[in-house]
Amino acid sequence: MTGSADLNHVSVSAPDMEASLRFYVDVLGLEPIPTPNFGFPVRWLRAGDGQLHLFNRSVPAPSYHHFAVTVDDLPAVYERAVAHGCLDEDTFSGSLVELPGDTVQLYLRDPAGNLLEVNALGVDRLPTAMRERLVRLADVHPQSEENLRARLPLANG
After folding, report:
1. CA 71 to chain centroid
2. How far is it, in rounded angstroms, from Cα 21 to Cα 118?
3. 41-70 pLDDT per residue, tens
4. Which CA distances in Å does 130 have to 58, 88, 127, 135?
């Protein structure tokens, strides 16, 4: 295969557009940006070099399908998520999971029920209270040598 592809944007359902917009601005700090008129409510938000598109359609969010973002300050996002009551403890091994390669994942549900994975490097960067809640993926599911070499493309390390 020739060429390459960069992720441009992700779209998620937002039956309550204002609640979803507040969530992504307040919890993740995404920035609303100008949006074309599609004939139904749509809002675009800047997410680093990409975008998140919220669209107002009454469709249920899938249970396991998700998108992921990388953040520099996971403890701050965690605190805001706790304040919003949006931690997802049930879909995977818990709301805070340690992957191979010193990667931490935080799982959240937005107001529409969309699953969001928030990634950061550095278990040692977490406050003690967060480290105590952390579930090591290797403790829940056996990891082969190849599994242990897996890495997410994180830019905040």
Report:
1. 9
2. 17
3. 999 999 999 999 999 987 888 888 999 999
4. 35, 15, 5, 10
What the chain holds in terms of domains, given with CATH numbers, is: 9-148 (3.10.180.10)
Greatest alpha-carbon pair distance for the chain in Å reads 51
Q: Residue 24, Cβ neighbours under 10 Å: how many?
A: 23
- What are the tens digits of pLDDT across the range 89-134? 999 889 999 999 899 999 999 999 999 999 999 999 999 999 999 9
Give the list of residues 6+ apart from residue 10 with CB closer than 8 angstroms, or none. 50, 51, 52, 53, 67
| Cα–Cα dist 61/44, whole Å | 18
